[in-house]
Amino acid sequence: MKGLEDVVAVETNIAYIDGITGILAYRGININDLMDNSFEEVCYLLVKGQIPSGDELEEYKRSLREARPLYDEVLEVIRACNKEADAMDVLRTAVSYMAQVDEDYTDNSMEASNRKAIKLIAKFPTIVAAYFRIVNGEEPVQPDLNLSHGANFLYMLTGKKPNSIESEVMEKDLILSAEHGLNASTFASRIAASTHSDIYSAIISGICTLKGPLHGGARLGAMEMLDSIGSLDRVEKYVNDCISNKKRVAGFGHRVYKTYDPRAKIYRNLAEKLDEDKPDITWYEVAKELETVVEREYVNKHDKPIYPNIDFYAAVTYKYLDIPPKMSTSIFALGRVSGWTAHCIEQYSDNRLIRPRAKFIWKIFDK
Ligand SMILES: CC(C)(COP(=O)(O)OP(=O)(O)OC[C@H]1O[C@@H](n2cnc3c(N)ncnc32)[C@H](O)[C@@H]1OP(=O)(O)O)[C@@H](O)C(=O)NCCC(=O)NCCS
Fold first, then answer.
1. pTM of the model
2. How far apart are CA 91 and CA 78, in angstroms?
3. How many C-beta atoms surround the C-beta of residue 221 within 10 A?
4. pLDDT per residue over 243-259, tens digit each?
5. Pocket test for ligand 1, best of 255, 312, 313 (most atoms within 8 A of CB)
6. Which domains does the chain have, with CATH numbers?
């Protein structure tokens, strides 16, 4: 099947997805019921398989927070990166260097992989925020170990403590972006892990794959699309131009969901909440209109609707948080790294090399 559509490649206990009714559950818990948990708690759930007890959570939070600061050498590598570079490329470079200065560099035991997983989840936000500040001619902000994972990221990005709605939105963004079964980047990570390559290498495979515009890069596409539409009155024309030029609408459609993406529903509510908090910003109205017009026009033209996916309303919330489009895919990675590490550890614990076959097709080439 082209694109491996509907092919079951691995067995997993991490995420359950029902694309027909629109259900996503992490370790058996519906995503809607995880919205009041902290991202740190959800990481524990994904990586270790269950909701932690109070003591377990305190200990896990402490290790994640203590691991937030970067090694000096990694900060130097970030400073040396091209200031025009894509944040995903900088993340890839920084993680690659981080692997080499990790005291567990040559230790690929389960214990060491679990320690590396904590460092990866903890340091991703510090890397992305540091690069953003350096590019803007500012010094990186040291992590605040008293803030939640999401609030601390916004603090390191802007140098200002976020308000309670901004903190809530960022925390939920991380939870919603954390895990989604065998999506392309998770599959890439698992393939690397299945060769017994180390967890840093496997996570770098995930970063490289998330970057593409058909995957995590759609968040950037959706933000750029909102900027190019600009106002409510230009929505109709934008959608009709997409249809006549056979151009895809960024942040719409999904390989697995044949109905509304359950994550997009939650993001839509968050966007509405931000809209009430910041009444002078109108992106939520533009987004709702775009959704209505896309649904109507695609039903008219193709007899079937296409729905917003996670990236569409995530992009809308990022507009309210004043996140520049070029940072958006790397922010997706801050959440998804927890899912990648959970899948690598699952793969290591019951491994068989992932090695499918290709069907050879004869072609006669003209000389
Ligand atoms: C996600 C995506 C790659 C899934 O692709 P897929 O499962 O291979 O689906 P297909 O490319 O086969 O598309 C199926 C049909 O829906 C249409 N379609 C899918 N997404 C569309 C979009 N965003 N805009 C317009 N039409 C779309 C296709 O044109 C196709 O129509 P057809 O059957 O008449 O040819 C695709 O929906 C897409 O490109 N979306 C935009 C990028 C995006 O948001 N990615 C993030 C996903 S979380």
1. 0.94
2. 8
3. 21
4. 999 999 999 999 999 99
5. 255
6. 218-320 (1.10.230.10)
